[in-house]
């Protein structure tokens, strides 16, 4: 994939995410593509990815906007800085605006995303929501355990 093709794919990805168009979002992925989300978990295949966007992302947020900036691509691997914002519709945090920045990693195959991961400081998002400290600490500890249990991290730590 060329740099321009990757930028065009990310434009489609972001527009579909912002619009809550699960079908268009999922079509940015290969049939067996995987979206690894730090809140909602892993979603494999277009049907699950579409469901995640429509039934989780847009269920729990309104006024959603997600942009991919400064994309770089070497053919089968791409990265982009992301900025997103939304207003929570989760009853305990209703009406709270959240702004997030992160780095996104895209494994690419046949012009589509085969594997998506992101690095986001979810603690910053939870602080903006007003999550109470005991719950915030518990969630951060769980995320730390999950990070250590990822196969690539385990391999790295064994080096």
Radius of gyration over all CA atoms, rounded = 16 Å
Order of secondary-structure elements: HHEEHEEEEHHH
Strand-pairing-aware structural class: alpha+beta
Q: What distance separates the N and C termini?
A: 32 Å
Short description, anyone?
The protein is of the alpha+beta class. Helices cover 42% and strands 38% of the residues. It is globular.
Provide structural commentary.
It is built from six helices and six strands. The chain has helices spanning 3-19, 22-26, 46-57, 122-129, 133-149, 151-158, and strands at 29-37, 41-44, 61-73, 77-88, 97-109, 112-120. The radius of gyration is 16 Å and the shape is globular.
From the structure above, extract its key features.
159 residues, alpha+beta, 6 helices, 6 strands, 38% strand, globular
SSE map:
Blueprint: H1 3-19, H2 22-26, E1 29-37, E2 41-44, H3 46-57, E3 61-73, E4 77-88, E5 97-109, E6 112-120, H4 122-129, H5 133-149, H6 151-158
Parallel strand pairs: 1-6
Antiparallel strand pairs: 1-2, 3-4, 4-5, 5-6
